Amino acid sequence: MCIETSNYKNITYYTCSAYTKVPCGTLCKSGHRIKAEVLLNLIQSTLQDIKESLNEDNEAFLHSIQNEMEESEKMEMEKKKTRLTDSKNRLQELERLMCRIYEDMILEKIPNTRYEILNNQYETEQRELSKEIDGLEKSIKRYEKETDRAMKFIRLIERYDNFDELTPTIINEFVEKILVHERDRKGSQTANQKVEIYFNFICNYEPPKEELSEEEMQKLREEEEKERERKDRLHQNYLKRKANGKQKEYEDRYKEKREQLKQEKLKTLKKSGIPLSEYKELMKKEA
Fold it and tell me: Which residue intervals make up region (Disordered) (predicted)?
């Protein structure tokens, strides 16, 4: 998804694909999103950290990744098996529902138009579930067959000296999937947002971090608590302004001012003879 701002800059977002699955909101309750730039930077920094850990101590890295995989993969496979069972049960339920509405249509309990709508919805969900079931079964079989995934990942990452530039080829080679969760506080731009990166061969692996002392941990907890309290205050103030109408007044003033600036830019463009389309392209490149 791409959003154009008031100065014609395009900001690309990745949106939740599970939210739009039929029925909408079943697999995920909210249609959240994350900036593409933020997500790509996170992938890049994670790969750089893994590469650094590998260069420092190959054996220790291999041992660490195998231990991590043993736990994470086991949990991931359990989730996939549970999802596979649920999907198969839902597929059978859809078949029964389709038979039922067909009988209701024949017996004139529901009109033909209603039958067509329901039947199309069920068929769409059937196709998506069948595709998902096929993917889950292949993933489970692949997990049961492969035993040297850690070494495969190491051989893959050793092909790259660094990850200063993240290309589509690198992303396809390394990333299996990415789970982006809803923000801790929905609607807040400064709230924390959990992101899980699943790499090919090693699943949701995170490189080991330097252990902190008890004093450092306590200091970190205190700083996090202060930051959380600050965000809470800001959010509560926002809710108060929204309730008493002050927020809308501010947004209306800002919107009016922004529109004035936009019109002034357009007038300047007309005087200088620069087409609006060229200006938009220029702003996109600068973004």
Answer: 212-256
